Amino acid sequence: GSWSELVASWELFRYGPATKTTERRSLAQRRHNLSQRLESKTALSRRAVYFTEAQRLAVAAGFAEYIERSGLEVYACAVLPDHVHLTFRRFRLSAEQVLIQLKAAATRSLVEKQIHPFLADAPGGRPPKCFARGGWDVFLDSPEDVSRAIRYVEENPVKEGLPPQHWDFVTPYPNGFVTDGSPAQNTSSV
Q: Which of 42, 65, 154, 165 is least enclosed, having the fewest CB within 10 Å?
């Protein structure tokens, strides 16, 4: 991941050292060796997760359950085949803790619906995790930044060739700072 300093797997290390970054913006557009990246994926202990439509709906159902139970305010959400984008209001938990809770709720939903991507790898037990550890957190300081992040999240499915997504758990952004003066947070998880 983006925060890794060490490649602990020999099978992966042979493709090069970790490329840690402290950037707070996406570096996905940087030039890289695509064939080497694709070849390195063959050395992973499990196949990369690519959610089907049914699995994306289950992930969203898990999110909805957590959001309703916790009171988290989400201003935008995109559940894509290989990553998720969320824009949400500052919360009583840290962004990292919110991501852990959301991923746990999504995992429960996938298991309950018997469509977890690694269910076959765990007959009678808990399947291996299907989400990456951590996430990419960007804290937004102005209503303009929040609005821009919401647009980015809402446009992401279309950029990926999917229809626009509209989730019942998404709350319209109040077009400015919320009443306590706290900015929202934009968090992407891969």
A: 42
